[in-house]
Design goal:
heterotrimer; A mainly alpha (233); B mainly alpha (45); C mainly alpha (224); B: 45 residues; mainly alpha; C: 224 residues; 9 helices
């Protein structure tokens, strides 16, 4: 396996993103390639968007993959799909927690308190609850096949309610989330430098997620295999 | 002291983030290698 | 289409009969509502709670009475060992729809009781727009019943049956609860019927989505 090179590439890639995100100066009217524009009301605090948004994005990708594997499990009844689904849900939970923490830190400095029950915060809290419940269910069922089946069903049910949280709830209640400022009318209002760093971060986090997913799947498979060996012995 | 932190806030955050990322990366790398070891072991036994 | 209504009605009739025989859910639900209301009355006392708080409290009672009343929907089949017979006699879809209709009727009855007692006992809580209130009650009950029915089926197969049910239900029911509480608040404040249009949309789409998903997924839970 010659993935080692890719892994180191990922290390330098995300290190570069971190460097750019915190070291590039923020100026009123950017003229050089390494300058960010001022976003009114956010200033230096805008820098968290390079990490907070990719984290939430990765969390959503992880949940979608978890749901797709759950559907595949129900269709093909292959134990592998259940492993992928559970592994991805775990990572989704992790990235969701990271997004919550970074968002909460930002909220402390921008809105004055760590938690304000802003619609975005409400939705992410609910998302955390759903996946907490998913793992509670996982640990409550004995039979492997039965567990895989019921968890897949629950993951799909949770997946179909997700759009309500992510889209409908925040849209009905007014939000103070800065997305309307940065991303008004569906158009991304970032200058090319910001956009480049942002997209690079997005790609880096997604790659990181897939690496971690691979590791998690291999761990779970090794666990199952060694348990089977222990039983046989 | 506080002035120092206020003046170099961005630098401190930058260094902290880089340190965190390096730690996470090294952890994942080690986990990868350990897993490979275990997988080889399981394949043999 | 019409031919499949017969078995659904049969499952429903069976549910009603076995319920009327033991009256487990009815008695438990009735006592649950009464005790919860008593606790709330003691807690509030002569305090003047706002309509926002009281709208939320009303739905907390409804949520937890649903959780205690409908949790046994499928557990009874497992306990009595009637599941395999039911599997032989009819298709999973029929069973799900039959149980769903029974649960909806049960919830309607219990919600009617809850709301009547609530409005009677908490004199300073008044509904000003009954059109919003009745619509929201109907839509909320249907959504609540659809979600609780499918989750009751999942929980019946797990080891820790009782405790897991509200844990699994709460996050899935939250979009419903949030919009229903919001609309109840509006009804108490006397908003016009169309002001709560967004809430109706959420509730209707939520119920449709959950019901469709349940119909598709129930087969997987029910088998084996």
């Amino acid at each position: 396996m010659d993935m080692t090179l890719l892994k180191f590439l990922l290390f330098f890639w995300l290190a570069g993103v971190i460097l750019a995100a915190f070291a590039f100066p923020i100026v009123p009217s950017p003229r050089h390639w390494n300058e960010f524009p001022v976003i009114p009301g956010l200033e230096d605090k805008a820098r968290i968007l390079f990490f907070h948004v990719p984290m939430s994005w990765t969390a959503v990708v992880a949940f979608i993959i978890s749901m797709i594997s759950a559907i595949r499990y129900l269709v093909r009844k292959n134990g592998n799909d259940d492993i992928v689904s559970a592994a991805s849900a775990g990572l989704g939970l992790l990235f969701c927690v990271l997004a919550t923490v970074t968002g909460s830190l930002w909220a402390k400095f921008n809105w004055g308190s760590f938690w304000n029950w802003d619609p975005r915060e409400t939705s992410i809290a609910i998302l955390l609850l759903i996946y907490g419940a998913y793992f509670a269910l996982r640990s409550a069922i004995d039979g492997e096949e039965k567990r895989a089946m019921l968890c897949a069903v629950y993951a799909i049910l949770a997946g179909v309610t997700m759009p309500f949280f992510i889209f409908i709830v925040p849209r009905i209640v007014a939000s103070l989330h800065p997305e309307p400022i940065v991303n008004s009318q569906g158009k991304i209002h970032m200058n090319p430098t910001m956009l480049t760093v942002f997209l690079a971060s997005l790609a880096g986090f997604t790659a990181l997620y897939f690496w971690m997913l691979r590791l998690r799947i291999r761990t779970m498979k090794a666990e199952i295999l060694s348990l089977a060996r222990a039983d046989a012995a | 002291m506080t002035e120092f932190f206020a003046d170099h806030a961005l630098l401190i955050v930058l260094a902290g983030s880089l340190l965190c990322w390096t730690g996470v990366f090294l952890f994942l790398l080690r986990m990868d290698r350990a897993l490979k070891h275990i997988e080889d072991h399981l394949k043999q036994g | 289409m019409f031919r499949s209504i017969g078995p659904v009605l049969a499952v429903m009739r069976k549910e009603f009969r076995s319920e009327l025989r033991t009256r487990y859910a009815l008695n438990a639900l009735f006592m649950f509502v009464v005790t919860t209301l008593a606790i709330i009355l003691f807690a509030i006392g002569n305090e003047n709670a706002s309509s926002e708080v009281l709208s939320g409290v009303l739905w907390i009672i409804i949520f937890f009475s649903t959780m205690s009343g409908l949790s046994r929907t499928f557990i009874t089949e497992e306990e009595r060992g009637t599941g395999p017979t039911l599997q032989l006699l009819t298709r999973p879809l029929t069973i799900f729809i039959g149980k769903f209709i029974f649960n909806t009727v049960l919830l309607f009855a219990i919600n009617l009781l809850t709301v009547a007692l609530y409005l009677l006992l908490l004199t300073n809580y008044q509904i000003r727009s009954y059109d919003i209130f009745i619509t929201i009650m109907a839509l909320g009950t249907v959504g609540l019943s659809a979600t609780s029915t499918i989750l009751a089926a999942i929980v019946a197969k797990a080891n820790t049956k009782g405790t897991l049910y509200p844990v699994l239900s709460f996050p899935l029911l939250l979009p419903l609860l949030l919009s229903v509480i919001n609309a109840t608040k509006m009804a108490a404040d006397g908003a016009r019927f169309l002001d709560a249009l967004g809430e109706y949309q959420v509730l209707i789409s939520y119920s449709v989505v959950i019901f469709t998903a349940s119909v598709l997924l129930f087969e997987f839970i029910w088998k084996d």
